[in-house]
Amino acid sequence: MSSNENEKCDCNKKRCLMNDVNWTRHLNACPVRKSKRKNQTIKTFFTLSQAKKICKDFTRISECDKNSETLEVEAVECKKPTTSSSEYEKKIPEKSTFDGPYTADLEVMNTDDIENSNTTFEEPIVSATSTCLPVPEVMNTDDIENSNTTYEEPIVSATSTCLPVPVPISEVDFVAESSANASMAEHLETNIDLQKNESPEDLVESVASLPYAIQFPNDPAFISNFTMSPELFAQVALQPPCQPAPFDLKNHKFPTKKQGKYTRSFHEEHYFKKMASGKFVKRIWVSYSPSTDKVYCIVCKLFGTTECKSYKLAKSGYDDWKHLAYALKNHEATPDHLQAEIRRAMYVNNQRVDLPSFQGLNSKVVENREIIKKIIKALLYLSRQNMAFRGHDESKTSKNQGNFLELIKLLSADNAVLSSHLLKIRDVKGKNRLTFLSNVSQNKILNVLGEMVRGQILQKIKASGVYSFIIDTTTDVANLEQLSLIVRFLNEDGDVEERLVAIKVASDASGLGMFNLLCDICQHFEIDWVNNLCAQSYDGAASMQGCYSGVKTLVQEKNPRAIYVWCFAHVLNLVVVDTCDKNTVTRIFFGNLQSLVSFMRARKRTALFIEAQKIYYPNERICKIKNFSNTRWTSHHQVLGVICTKYKAVMKTLKDLSLSLDRETSATAKNLQTVMSSFMFVTNLLLMKNVFEYTTPLSLYLQSPSIDFIQALTMVDNCAKNLFDMREDHTADKLLDNARQFAEDNGLEQTCFPNKRNIIKKVMDGEKKGTETIFLSPNNRYKIEVYNTVLDQIISSISSRFEGARKILADLSFFSYERLISINEGCSIPEDCFIYLKTWIPNIEIDELKMEYITFAKCFMELKNGINIKKLHNKSEPGDENDDDELHDSSSDTETESNTDAPKITALDIIKLLNSYNLISAFPNLYTAYKYACTIPATSASCERSFSKLKLIKTRLRSTMKQNLLEPLMLLSCERNIEINEDEAINNYANTSKILKEALLFK
């Protein structure tokens, strides 16, 4: 006797040999069964269209093959009911199915209430925080009736996870057990509410007894293996996998079946995968079917290829529980499954790769846009690496078609669309109209990308409201005068940025010519510098800072508030030049040093120097003596460092070269050897090395784009103070002791200054006898004539050359860290402070600024202690990627901080402090003052960095490059950290011609 023959009705009548039709008729007509379910309900939330469908004549169920595990439910079109919906609600037929969206375990709205309400329902009103809900919070139907809201999502909130949230599966072929299908209409028919005294456990029990088609609508067995509409596919694909717990099923356990000698069942541990680290990761592709008691791969079933969908796990399910773990492990490692996972991830992120999108009206557009995306990536790579694009021979038979075409070939190896495009180009005879690979297309795309970068920069500049100009010129390899315009401003986050806006050819290099070019650039890009420019920074050229016809003067005639700052880095170079050339001893010293550098640059002499380093310093890095630079005096410090650390190797090289058969080489090497072995040279070497240890880090620090004007001048003053401290007698004595020790360590004959006989002039008859001759020791003579003279010169030069900058700092000095601390400690501020700011910053209230300044200073320490200043900064500053410039050396940051005494908190830190505490609206005048102060550029080194890029892009082999190509390449190279939207770039490129519009824009 089969298990079905033992089935009983609620009236205790057994099925015995009754067939399915007769047994179903008995169940539907049994009065005992109906009375027991009188007070129960299936809380289903129907939309208006679904409620009307229930009132139609219901479908018939056609029975499939008895040996099959499934039944098909076929929908039959019916006429509209003539009676009211409320009457039809009482006359619901016994068997019904519907193809609209629904949810299980939700409250049913009366169809009359739905029709009389002003609410339009198009989708089930459900919102769940997880995949299951045991006790949903349902909106009152009265609230829904009284509202005028149009709901497109289900209005249900769930607070825990137990039952899966059903979703619309209107076109899915439901496949369930015959008993579930037979009783589905009956469950839909019994609209009974849960009693108030019923416990949550009773609710779970009642829901667990529902048909699987209602309780688990994401059951993978319900998903048709045939083609679905795109809308239905989107609904199914975005659902979570069906992974019920045993408590969610009937009898609160997975069904068991006998397999071999043992009775086995599915276990929920297969939902997880154990990693090598011991952690468990959820398998989002494993989906268990409660209706068929099988496991499916939902990812392969939906996103797999034709071959992948034929796998047992994707097509019919897997129920061999003994070998399930082995099957799952093997399946998730197959290439087809991994490809399906990639397709699913791209589909979820709206990057659909399903083949139907390539077969529609826009299939060719999709293909072309995919090709352009790869071309854009190649162009960005080459431009940001400053590489040439086109080769000498780009014909089809060439073995080297240039960087661009060769890179496209490389990218096509992993992209089927691009590879197919290249094959079409190669096979087609004659010219192809749209290859996207010609030099014209490259230039067009590069111009589009460059304009997109510049557009983002201009947008930030205009949003900042205040900015400053940094301008400089250089001569390129084609003997054209290139003018670089850098704009400094503060972005929305309070970070300072210095961005390249334009690089143009200055045909007239005079002050008036460059001013007219600047006006043309600003007019073209709509930059209102007359009202918003607050500062300008140039070098010391007469055409830039001339008081009559310089760019500075012409700009200030139209905008008097645009203060001029002489580049601090250039000024510091002049300070060092004054120091090195003012004194006779130091001038001779650097002359000998330059002779040594020029002499050692020959190939054979450099080889001898390297071999000598291997002998004396085997475990140290090999160094070379670099050439002097007349404009960048930091190179002098590098030469001094190499000679100090590799002194023995230098002397051995000169000794070997003095034995050369070449008379000029031998004589020069012998003379240099004699000079370098003297105690005077050693002492000057250590003296200038000590001086450069303060000036070089300061010079490097002044070239940072993130440094503000107040901070820069503070560091200059600290450097001058440190140099002034060196002028003490004990510091000079320490220098002489170090020189003596250095001479002894390197085996020099002279370990002190030689004694010179004082010459006494004979007094002739009739002459008056002079004052008594003062006899000075060699050490004291060196202190007076060399040591003190050098330090006095550099200190006075710093004071005089930075005097103009200190005038600007007159009122800005109140915004320094030291002034804020002094005000916090009780010091008062003068009555006439901030008077200069009134003429410099428009619309600023001086009285309110004073009040805000005093209030902020008093609570400054509390704000400072509440936030870590280091965390206020980003990891990288704009422009720091240009590390190929000689002016910038990030490796000396530690030395810079220690030797220049950089202030602990800068004006930029204070702006970030106001930003982080949201105090901008509370201190508007103070924030504006700090913003203007931080916008002042302290250096024009950013222009020098752009010139370094110019030398890498416009080389000797690319000297004929046109300006309309050079400018976008400069923008892409200098501003590489600005992101580019590829889709927007394609649209902009498509709008350049009608042919490209047809090929790249969707219809």
From TrEMBL:
An example Gene Ontology molecular-function term: protein dimerization activity
Domain TTF-type intervals: 271-368
Region annotation Disordered: where it falls in the sequence: 874-900
SMART domains: ZnF_TTF
InterPro entries: DUF4371, HATC_C_dom, RNaseH-like_sf, Znf_TTF
Alphabetized Pfam families for the sequence: Dimer_Tnp_hAT, DUF4371
Biased composition (Acidic residues): 879-898
PANTHER family given in the database record: OS05G0311600 PROTEIN, PTHR45749
Protein name: TTF-type domain-containing protein
